[in-house]
Design a protein that fits this description.
The protein is mainly alpha-helical. It contains 6 helices and 3 strands, in the order ααβααββαα. The chain has helices at 14-19, 21-37, 45-51, 54-63, 78-81, 85-108; strands at 42-44, 66-69, 72-75. The longest helix is centred in the C-terminal third of the chain and has 24 residues, at 85-108.
Length: 109
């Protein structure tokens, strides 16, 4: 299970303060959704509307936390701060292989 990472300086980062608490609530919920679905930081309009208001989303864009795309939003510099879908899938495959080998070793004992 991947985790959406939040830097320990987020609470008083100038972008967070400028965005305000409501928009940051949208930001956190959208980050969690993105990790759950492995969307690599892309938040479709329909999901953004379910998680918060349009004005909150626009606020995230205006302070530089999100980028506006044609059909939704993207977390600014997601791949520099969060594991990508490819990384998560690689990690999951490596974990599955380790577990398979461990089960084989236990059978041989």
């Amino acid at each position: 299970m991947p985790w959406f990472k939040v830097d320990d300086t987020l609470a008083f980062h100038h972008k967070s303060v400028a965005a305000g608490n409501a928009a940051m609530g949208l930001w956190v919920r959208a980050g969690s959704w993105s990790m759950q679905t492995l969307s690599d930081g892309f938040i479709p309009d329909v999901i953004a509307q379910q998680l918060g208001s349009k004005s909150q989303a626009e606020r995230l864009v205006s302070v530089g936390l999100w980028d506006r795309l044609k059909t939704g939003y993207a977390f600014h510099e997601w791949e520099q701060r969060q594991p990508t879908k490819a990384q998560v899938q690689t990690d999951r495959a490596a974990t599955a292989e380790r577990q398979r080998k461990a089960r084989e070793r236990r059978k041989e004992e």
